[in-house]
Amino acid sequence: MSGPLHPQISLYAAIATRSFRRYSTYTAATLAGIFTNSVFGIILSFAYLALWEQNPSAGGYEADQAVTFVWIGQALLMTVALWSGGSTDDLAERIRTGDIAVDLYRPVSVLGWYLAADLGRGLYHFATRGVAPAIVGALLFGLVTPSVVGAAGFLVSVVLAVVVSFAVRFLFAASAFWLLDATGPRVLLSVLATFFSGLTLPLNLFPDGLRQVALALPFASYIQTPADIWLGRHTGLDMIAAIGLQVLWAVVLLATCALVLRAATRKVVVQGG
Amino acid sequence: MVDADTPAAYVAHAVRSYWLIALLWIRAAMAYPVSFWTMLVGGVLITFLDFVAIWLMFTHVDTYGGFTLREIALLYGLTSIAFRIADMLVGSVEKIGRYVRSGDLDAMMTKPVPVLVQLCADRFELRRLGQIAQGLAVFAWAAPIVEWSPQRLAVLVLALVSGVVIYFCVFVIFSTIQFWTTDASEVASAFTYGGNTIMQYPMTIFPREVVRSLTYLLPLAFVNWYPCLFLLGRTDPFGSPDWFRFASPLAALVLVGVTTLVWRQGLRRYRSTGS
């Protein structure tokens, strides 16, 4: 596996590192974000506690698991760029201005470039706006901790969450190739992602039918799947199946991204760039 | 400066300026009617899912914090209408930091219209009517549980007006933080959007300290909690004085005073970036 693969990997690592550092320059914004995530975490924790006081096993969760779910949600919403943001926003902007033509003729895969940048961003947001509010949550409410296998599975699941979310955002941003302005689709996406990721309410609390649909959608990969792995709801083969579904979505969506990009490239050429 | 010799003339000038700038942006938006109406309907759908989440909670419980779904819809509707109207009226105040960085704030300082009016009217978004409509729809669905009387109607109207003023002030107060740190706009969201979220739930699910803070520090409880207790004919589980139910205008007035002070301090603190 040596040879041509190695320089590619170090290139993507360099892109991810630069992206990480780019976000780390906005210290005040990060601190402000940690504060806001914590405030919402506290509000939702009380909201969930009141629900679980009435129904101590709603959705198959115990009260302390439900509160932990809240803080995992707050930790992951910026990590997966639930409300957009991240490298796909740059992509949409570059499509609008026409700068995308430059990207398309670089000797690097456009998809790989933007994915690497988004992973760097995701890592920064996870390390700051993920970890810090979770500490606040642990101090104020006490959180459920996972087994070692659960923690490892969680981390794998979070990386896949970023990849799936990236691919979805990439597709919505790519709509700008045809619509020129991707604002409308982006608003729609943030609504769907908020509701179907489990951020507002764990998907296991959805009524039958809607629940099965929601769990099968790629948005479940964002928060619901990593959270259930952390909480020990998916163990052994079940965990492998849950992660497998994330991998499946990642592969299918990235392949779709590649196809869309190829179609878009032809369009850019026809337009003359 | 302006022909604003009396406070009344000053306010009239400010309102007129606001309206003229807002009208400009409404006309601009109406130049693309399809886009405008899509966004408007989109706004209804977006906030609709917001309430669906609360509705889904009720598939697992019969009452929540001692309140039924319709009673919570009443709380939800009242805070949503007030919050979304305020959100529409404050426009770009949330983006002060961006205006400071770009130097646009300097340009605003030289114009004969108060800076706050310019900021609020800038990029006025009429399409936010969609979100206000969602709040109205939820409220209308809840309204039949109230035994309406002229007195209750009066409390409702006062609460709505006060609620808009209170949220407007919260938007302005916490946006001024950006005069000190231009890229900390998210702190404001914790109090504005966070404030709206917290008021969607009955106060009974929160510890007493939280309810006290929302009464005496940041008087959001006067937006819907105390007026709704009156509309529903319920006594306050936290034992607050009965007159709190009618005190929404008082809370709004005090907050206006605080906001004026904070805003002036912020503007005084402002130093151009020179860009």
UniProtKB/TrEMBL annotation, chain A:
Keywords: Membrane, Transmembrane, Transmembrane helix. The chain crosses the membrane at residues 28-51, 66-86, 131-152, 158-180, 187-206, 239-261. Signal peptide: none annotated. This is ABC-2 type transport system permease protein. It comes from Nocardioides panzhihuensis.
UniProtKB/TrEMBL annotation, chain B:
It comes from the Bacteria. The chain crosses the membrane at residues 6-26, 38-58, 152-174, 213-232, 244-263. It holds the Pfam family ABC2_membrane_6. Keywords: Membrane, Transmembrane, Transmembrane helix. This is ABC-2 type transport system permease protein.
